Amino acid sequence: MIVDDPQTLAEVTAVFEVYERALLDNDGDMLDAMFLTSEKTVRYGVAEIQYGIEEVRLFRAVQKPFSRSLSRTLITTYGSNVAIASTLFHREDFPGETGRQMQTWIRTEDGWKVAAAHVSMMTSD
Question: Which of 6, 13, 63, 77 holds its CA 20 to 30 A away from the CA of 117?
């Protein structure tokens, strides 16, 4: 297996950046399109749990816009069809806390999709 194939890494980095823009723009349609349409899609949020794309959609439908900055973003590809994106994030409305986000991206016939995601907060040191 090739780890961090340059072409695959560039593709996932680009789609990760599109995801981040859609998140900050609160673009529900774009975010929905970026998740795998499956009952096996999982998203663990800061204060919620979603199993299946329908629960992810219900969560997204009530989200309010916010801003954040990212740090220590690391994207690693495994072969040409799987990638893990990890990043820390910082929000002014969560002073003294650092957010953590991990996503499992998979290549599908419709392009790269998030199959699993985890978002959590921790106290900053």
Answer: 6
